[in-house]
Amino acid sequence: MFQREPQRRSRLPVGVKNFFAAFGDLKTSTGRAHLAQQTRATAWRVADETTRALTAGLGLADVRALLRGEPPVEKPNVREQALSRAFWTHLRPRAYYKSSTKFSHTFGFGFFNVFFAFVQLITGTLLMFFYEPSPERAYASIVQLVTQVPLGQFLRHLHHWSANLLVLFVLLHLLRVYLTGAFKQTRRLTWSIGALLLGLLLAIAFIGYRLPMDNAVTWGNPDDLLRYYLLHTGILPGAGLLLVAAHYYRVARLHGISLPANEEESPDATVRENARARVNYLPELWSRELVWLALALLGLFALAAWGGHAPLGRPFDSTHRAATMSVPWFLLWWQGLRLDPLVLPMLLGLRDGAGIDLTPFYDSALWQGILVPIFLGAVLLVAPYLDALWDKFWGRAPSRLGRQRKLGIALGLFALMGWLAFSLLAYFASTGSPAERIAHEFLPEECERAVFPLLPAECGAVRRIGYAQLPNGTYEVARYAAPSAEPFENMLAQLRVRLAQADVDDARAQIIIEEWQANLKKITLRIVWTPRASSDTGTLERTIYLHRDSAYE
Ligand code: HEM
Ligand code: HEM
Questions:
Q1: Which ligand minimizes its atom distance to the CA of 244?
Q2: How far apart are CA 251 and CA 113, in angstroms?
């Protein structure tokens, strides 16, 4: 009959007992080797299990093989499992056509778009913890964020830079998709969704500049800040996420990334075949994307740390609205349109030359500010369908080859040049009277945001010279004829040249510098000229106060 061995009873739990037994093992060399082997095995098991939990099934050995770009270690192939079960990888196709992954075909623009969009989501959410969306508190909350919160300045810079880079990369993405003809046939709707995304992006960025409640923004009602905030942080990004999901679903699941046209439409069957060789996502593309990710993070962090301050002007003051709306670089084209350099001059010419006055029927602000941009957006939205109609009209098969699309490419480049031309027009447009322009160059009432990131804010020549180099006194500008090594006198000489060049009669200017309070100088610029019209007062006076500690580049 089976008899139980009599057991020695112990009060100690097993783990503790083993622990003490291990001390015993340390006495002999075989015991020590056994112990080391046991420890290694346990550590590997724990690490392996944790890795499997994190990677939806890939063990440590397989992760190592992935990182080395080696074939899978375990059979059956656990990578398949990770591709379908893990969240990030299940979003990705398992394999791509080799030629569609060429860097020179997409430049990774779509990838970077997604990256920067995520950075916006994350940094934006963090900003929401500090930003207060009330007209009274918004500005102060940003000042508090950048001065009191650890890494608050960095956080704001991340959001600012990533927003600018996102817009830049989306525009480059659009250009590459257009030039490679990747918007044709099955990809038509993908393009249209992209066009909607672009509109949404510009709207989000435009509203973003409203949120700090500084003086740079002149549009809209300040009391509506909460509405803009909800649009910027909730409604529009929510709609954007849905559209990105649809856009990406089409690319990843429905039609894939296009092949380079010269390979897809090559007369040589082997070229066409080779282009369609399979490249697995794991590990080939995955490891390449890790490098891109690291580079993008590095670049973004460097810009956020050393790329200069995200603009923050003076607090908003409804009695001191800036004369012109300042817009970021990607909306300059719109500003250019609103200057109306084409239609209005033509109508005026028609009126003065031929006596046909159509100007009463033409509302420049409505047309150039709203209707023309909507029309351009609509053309962008349906561009692939227009392109298809064009092909159909000539009864030819759609082709993505550059030489079959000469007109399309020419039109695209024409649009790009128009975009640049209108942007430059707005950038260099001068507003105000000649005297105001001079005052603006030398002594603007306040610093103006630079339109392009990395350029310093424009604070005028006087502020740049700085407190210490501005001697008290009254200076008649006419007396400073020659350039001087002394910065202040040299500036006076420049001012004299500007006055002489300006389209005003008999202009004279004076600069008065007074010690207003301890460490505070009062600086007045006075320009007088002979008025030409009765509405012209013939004088302009502007005063600023400059503190000893204020520094302007
Ligand atoms: C936030 C904005 C956008 C995101 C996140 C995004 C994302 C992507 C990604 C990841 C791809 C695949 C990879 C690549 O082609 O680089 C792609 C492809 C594509 N995108 Fe976008 N995109 C955006 C905006 C746009 C815009 C503005 C357009 C055009 C108006 C557009 C049209 C297309 C088209 C047609 C494809 C297919 C290209 C091909 O198959 O070669 N996308 N997009
Ligand atoms: C495509 C996405 C986005 C773009 C292009 C964008 C752009 C901007 C811009 C240009 C500013 C002004 C900052 C400055 O003065 O430099 C801003 C501010 C802000 N954004 Fe966004 N944003 C985006 C998404 C988000 C999201 C998703 C959130 C919240 C979840 C958010 C929250 C905020 C907050 C709280 C501010 C005010 C703080 C500040 O001005 O520094 N943003 N955004």
A1: 1
A2: 14
